[in-house]
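lol ok so funny story. i was supposed to be doing the assay writeup but got distracted and ended up predicting the structure for this chain instead. priorities right. anyway since i did it might as well share w the group, maybe its usefull for someone
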Amino acid sequence: MRFGIITPVFDRCLGSLELLFREIHHQTHKNWIWMLCSNGYSRKISQFIDKKNYILKKSRKNAIIESPSLAYLNMDYEETPDAFSLMANISKRRDYCIHMHDSDYVIFIDADAKLLDSKMFEIISAELESTSKAICIYKIELSKSRELPIFPISYATIDTLNYCISTMLAKRVGYPTTVNTEQYGNDFWFIDRCLKSTNGDYIFIDRVFGKYNGNNTYLNMQTLLGVHFKNEMPAKLLRSVKAFIYRRLLDPFRL
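and the output, tada:
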């Protein structure tokens, strides 16, 4: 089973990508391709991928079926200076990556995520091969005292790091490329549509595989997004959106 790992990237996350590469590289299941997608070409990201592919090539021993590698995708999406545009831009990159690979399953791992279990891919692969499910859901650590997902699954109870989806299903559903401004995000739209298309059929692994925001070495998103608000935005809307961002980052899944 081959996994397609999708990570939207930008230059400031290189420190986090170094940590994440070690964790992905140390996975016992080696049949994966890691797709890093930026908005526009980045020389630094390209150099990072070239170096890591060289490391993978040197460490690969007689691997015929299992062939881990990194791929660099970059697209020029028009981006207006506001938070919703940035969110939509990231989603467009995820959707682009979904349609640009032919792996068996898609896994979304953001640059700031941390993998806690070196057998994550191996366990997921074994479970999926034994059940042939299109969706696999598992646990992640949100904080020292909180885990996701929270059942029943609804908005703000599951993260993109919580699941992998069959590539066929992901391509059919497509990652939403517009932002729901009422719910301030569109990540839940994707998993919700996938679950509905399979009548809620999935396999659940009762094991913690990752940590939300566990490898964040760059600026917090509220700082990054703070520069994306237009000065002419109505003050009330500006305060409400900023308050949402701060709240979601301090406690990302509080309603």
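The longest helix spans residues 43-59. Helices lie at 14-25, 43-59, 83-98, 120-131, 167-173, 187-197, 221-226, 235-250.
back to the writeup now i swear
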